[in-house]
Amino acid sequence: MQLRHFNTSRGKMLKICCADIAVIFSNTVANGRQLLSFRADWLAPDEEYRSVIKVRVFNGPNLNLLGQREPGTYGQRSLMDIMQELERFAGDCGVQLDHMQTNSEGKMVDAIQQAGKDGVDYIIINPAGYTHTSVAIRDALLAVDIPFVEVHLSAVNSREPFRQINYFSDIAIGVISGFRGESYLLALQAILNRIEP
Ligand code: DQA
Predict the structure, then answer these.
(1) Within 10 A of 131 (CB to CB), how many other CB atoms are there?
(2) What is the pTM for the complete model shown?
């Protein structure tokens, strides 16, 4: 198995098998769900492997109701189900991932500030309704200066005019929108793609 070191954008190291990660990425581009069928055997053996990439996921208001809430727009899956799938993918990729959900703008700001103190490398955030209103959450992300991917379950750009106001997209690494729960998997894949050799 060929192993190489990669620098993350924040200067940390990850050992992975290049050939296998290429397969994973090409398969996931074709079908985001396929990545779940890959196991951790493409990673280096435990004694050689040290992953220190920390990713934190923030979910905003009403996302705790996923599954019951407007399933035609947001899908049938619960947030717990989506996050468990994301955690499995992160684990298989050797990424340290945790997540939180809050209905409160202030709690989201506090949690983002905490991410700055915790040495989080990347953020994945679905600000939900705050996408269209929150200067405070935007400012918190700018303050901690952690690169982030903005995620939406629905295709926000093709929805109501008020959802076209967005306080995050212009400062995000990128935006993934419209793939229901798989948007989160694609966001993590995008982060992995940014890890530079
Ligand atoms: C959302 C889109 C927002 O416009 C909406 O307020 C949400 C969820 C999404 O994931 O599609 O609560 O962020």
Answers:
(1) 23
(2) 0.78
